[in-house]
Amino acid sequence: MTGPRTPTEGLRHRPTEAWIAAQRARFPVEPTIDEVFTHKLRKRMAAVEHSLDFSGLDARLQEFLAAQTGQSDLRIEALERLSGGASKEQFSFWLHWRPEGAERPVRQRMMLRMDPTEAIVETHRRREWEVLGAVHGQVPVPEVQWLDPEGRALGRPALIAGFLEGTVRPPGADRMSGVGMYFAPELRAALKDEFVAILARIHNLDWRRCTLPSFAEPEPGTTQAVDWTLGLWERAWHEDTLDAHPIMERAALWLHEHRPVVARPVLVHGDYRSGNFMYDDRLRINAIFDWELAYLGDYHDDLAWASLPLFGCADEQGTPLASGLLPVEEFLQQYERVSGNPVDRERLRYYQVLSYYKISVIAVATSLRIAHGRRTHLDAMMNFAAGLGYIGISELNRLLDRI
Amino acid sequence: MGPEISQFLAGMRKTMEQVVLPNLSDRFAQEQAGIVTATLAFLEQVHDKVFHYELLEHHLYQRLLGQTLDLLSVPEVTDPEIVETLAAIQRQLTEDPPGGDIHLYRYDRLRAGNESMKELLCALIRLQPALPDAVRTALGDLLQPFFRDLERRERSWVKPLGFDAQADQLPDIAELLYCNDRLQLPGDGRP
Asked: Beta strand pairing status for A89-97 and A106-114?
């Protein structure tokens, strides 16, 4: 592994406090996003390789849960690592405990979702916790139980939720993290309407009535929501990339010069696509996952992301499908009908550019950065993800040429 | 010197495919071993082209920065940051001039030179709003074909990783690098 090749690269490898301050001043982001990004850079000063050894985690978990519940006799068994996913380390375990109001002890399967040393997307577990709690009962999500926001008990920030049984990858889908996932016609027919309806429900949720203290409220009728989300992705690029890239610079400039006003911010999922939902044996969607990128902004962001050709695939006749489920035009029309939110094609185009910019940041900058530092449980996968990222940059450039 | 790198890689991939993968029972381990195997297959395709890929990039960035310098070194361009960036480009091209002997240096040195040139180009792109409109348009016209070649080259490079739904429409990276088994450096005056 080589050292830094230029002074800028040296600062990304070993950030100084002055450089961190300059990044914070340059890119406007929400306060909690600033918190996790700044923490990431300070951690980078200590070159710690991520270890996959999770022996000892069960003891820490037991101690943490006993303290949280006040039940010193609760018991954990069968703690095991889960496959799938690309961001957080995930484990399942069985918990013997007495839920509040229960008459007798139960054995319940739980999921532990934990930050690696550095992640493909640096996000705040408290935000994820808050939003999962806010949508529970209105959108199918795992029920969150406990949170260790700074990782004081478990070593790294983590949340614990009830484990749900179901299928994320349909038979034969072996692509990384849901990318290009193929659903057979009968699956598509069963899932597509619910996929759209749930998205509409998320966007129409009255978030002002929810408890979301870690989410900053953008000023309606301004570009503030876009400023913050663009600031996040630009900051991630400039803090994480191993190589400067002129097309990414071109795109960032275009995105700045064309920022749309967001009249009425809604709850945006931030990663709504195939690979991030699960269905049960009755072919009903029973969970929407990966809320870590949720924010208050423009619903067109989710529409553009969910219909990005990179995440979908074509049907048997070659028609491109949004998230592998339904033709893109049908997806948009159905969303308009179900949600009552009009789809502005010009605005959608803006968020398509932003979507390609985002996936390029994730798969070319952050994924390669964390693999370079050996900071994750998925170093091999993170290098491999570059294959997706450079397609993202290519599509980004082609889209900008067409506009 | 032997064996060839390609032989090492092919041997490891075969072992992964026929020994390790069939005998793994843990799903996480299977998933990761599958990625390792696919990565080995990718490396088999590209490992012998890395130096020439970077050498081509070096040539193309040098050429583009030279053209950019010619275009922007006019009285209408007065923004101090742009003027400073142009001076930095001039220094870069003086220290590592076109037609120089970079091909004789270590790979790391070549990569470092390329990264310096990329950073300078990115700085100029960022500063475009400070250019007079006509100059900005002319710079955009200069950059557009460069961007197209760049994204096509990178996409061909990662094609063996298997993500690309348009893979059958993309040239192999060797087709973009070589003609008659020789690295093609556009504008170097050789056939």
From this structure: antiparallel
Residue ranges of chain A that CATH labels 3.30.200.20 = 57-162
Q: Given an 8 Å threshold on Cβ–Cβ distance, is B116 in contact with A6?
A: yes
- Indicate the CATH number for domain A176-402: 3.90.1200.10
Look at B116 and A383 and tell me if their CB atoms are within 8 Å. Answer: no
**Residue A392 in contact with residue A359, Cβ under 8 Å?**
yes
Name the residue among A8, A313, A397 with its Cβ closest to that of B119. Answer: A8
| CA A324 to chain centroid | 19
Q: Who among B112, B129, B146 is closest to A6 (CB)?
A: B112
pLDDT in tens, A210-255: 999 999 999 999 999 999 999 999 999 999 999 999 999 999 999 9
Which residues of chain B have a pLDDT value below 70?
188-191
Q: How far is A158 from chain B (nearest CA, A)?
A: 20
Give yes or no for residue A176 having a pLDDT over 70.
Answer: no
Contacts of B42 in chain A (CB under 8 A): 384, 387
Taking the Cβ of residue B162 and every Cβ of chain A, the question of whether any pair is shorter than 8 Å is answered with yes
Q: Is a pLDDT exceeding 80 seen at residue A2?
A: no
Q: Which CATH architecture has domain A57-162?
A: 2-Layer Sandwich (3.30)
Q: What's the mean per-residue pLDDT of chain A? A: 92
Nearest beta carbon to residue B115 from set A6, A257, A397: A6
Please provide the DSSP assignment of B98-149 as one string.
TT-SGGGS-HHHHHHHHHHHHHHHHHHHHTGGGS-HHHHHHHHHHHHHHHHH
